[in-house]
Amino acid sequence: MAIVGPFGLSVTDETLDADIRAGMAAVEQELLAATKSEFPYLTQTSRHLVEAGGKRFRPLLVLLAAQFGDWQAPGVVPAAVVCELTHLATLYHDDVMDEAPLRRGAPSANSRWDNSVAILTGDFLFARASEIVADLGNEAVRIQARAFARLVTGQIRETVGPAMGDDPVEHYLSVMADKTGSLIAASGQFGAMFAGADEHVVDILTRYGERFGVAFQLADDVLDIASEATESGKTPGTDLREGVPTLPVLHLRAGVAGASPAADRHLLELLDGPITDDDEHAEALSLLRGHPALAKAREDTRRYAEEAREVLAPLPDCSAKRALSSLCELVVERSA
């Protein structure tokens, strides 16, 4: 019988399941320690998203990658905490940029407090991540800094948009590799590296994380349109409301045709800018949910997930490799 672990991952190896559960429990303890401040108000704001839960995918990937060496090596769990804290810091900032009212099924920090508190809390979390990674050595600092620089660059490139003559879809996929793939790649790299895995294994798991990260983000794009709030933990259609084009919208604009040209023109008119009217927002969501452009985005998600799975081929057959492969299936199912 399958054993259900974090992120909905099912494994049949009881040893792997026990290792992952023990590792994740240690990560949770260290997250609480890292988000404690001498100023109680800051502890409250910093733990807001930690206590709201979340998929904890980045720590999970660190722990799975560490299975290719000694997962109990002293740097593995702190590295997982660094990845999650860095991710959490970006969520506080993202919610300010998006003016999102919900995050992980709870009020976002900016809506519960205000934008200034959310931004400063994100800064505090990144400072905590930097403090922990500094104890892991110069190479770890370099990896985290490069990943964060790519993440920020991706966010800026998304904000600015493609240059004249660039393919908007290709630009977007490149942005996702920076914005999301970079930190997930670092998670795979950290796990294998601190577990003492061979250099070629570290490289494989880094490349896996990059490709999987893109698939992971594209699945979120699909969910933002296709899911209800109770499924995704955030308000559906947030990007639509703010006029931020995600992959399904870009495919629509690139000419993926629906059943009716008139309906496509109407949908494109709705999507031309921020949608402030609730009825128009609901109409745009409904039209996109039934449009081939959404199906095309699902195809892209499957393609990147399959590329991630193929990267794993040189690794020895083991429970951790099968779990990483299963994650590729899960992300596709998530976008189905």
Describe the structure.
The protein has helices at residues 14-34, 40-52, 57-66, 76-98, 109-112, 115-134, 138-160, 168-194, 199-226, 229-232, 238-242, 247-253, 261-270, 278-289, 292-311, 319-335, and strands spanning 3-4, 10-11, 102-103, 106-107. The protein has 336 residues and is an all-alpha fold. It has a single domain (3-335), classed as Farnesyl Diphosphate Synthase (Orthogonal Bundle). The strands form two sheets. It has a two-stranded antiparallel ribbon. It has a two-stranded antiparallel sheet with strand order 3-4. A hairpin with a 2-residue loop joins strand 3 (102-103) and strand 4 (106-107). Helix 3 (57-66) packs across helix 8, helix 7 runs antiparallel to helix 8 and helix 8 crosses helix 9 (199-226). The longest helix is centred in the middle third of the chain and has 28 residues, at 199-226.
